[in-house]
Write the structure tokens for this entry.
Amino acid sequence: MSMPETKSVKTQERMIPLLRAWVAKKLTKQGFRVTDIASVLSITPAAVTQYVKGRRGGNSKGLKRFESVLDALVEKAAKRIRSNLGPIEIAAIMDVIYQISAARSGQELLQSQSAKPEHREALKLLKERLQLELVAAQRCLELTNKINDEYSKLLLRMIASDSIRHADVVSQVISWLETGHTTAFQPPDLSFLRSMLEIEDKATESSLAEKIEIPHPVAKVLLNSIDMDEEKHEKIVGELLRLLKK
């Protein structure tokens, strides 16, 4: 494993207890039982108590500026407890860690000043776009916590998540231009790409927005966004396959 990968894994390992502590404290304030909090976080009741008392999990003060992202995880945990749906998936926790890491990286790059003369214009444009994506994500998440409509919450979180991912891509391109360092092209396995293309082909054959009737107007928008994503994924996988054939 390379050094950057090792650093990334260690960061993720440190973040998990911080997130659990945040969620445990918030759910406790909302009146949830320790046993229910332990169950939804896949930890012991004793661990929940330690998180709440600050004896475990580390210092979460640095997470305060990502409160909107974290509160979405708290809300998801609360819903799972109320509906008896079991623990939060580790993928949901890792996605929050990814969003926080991407936002942090983006903010750091906005403050950097290094730029080669031939890249100044490109970097200026990229940093302007990075700023827009980060602001869009933050505003969507802030609004999410002010409305009660569940469909609208989903839509705003989806936009915020997309914006953070866009910011991550732009951040990576900025890093490449500032350092002059790029990694070698390492495409996924050909058999994997073909299997993914088959899955995407099947997904695009049946439009959810056209076939599912639901009265809420935003629900229709959400279903349509899934259809658009499937079409996008199919094109992306197709492009990767074409690159492999060159």
Remarks:
- The two ends are 29 Å apart (CA to CA).
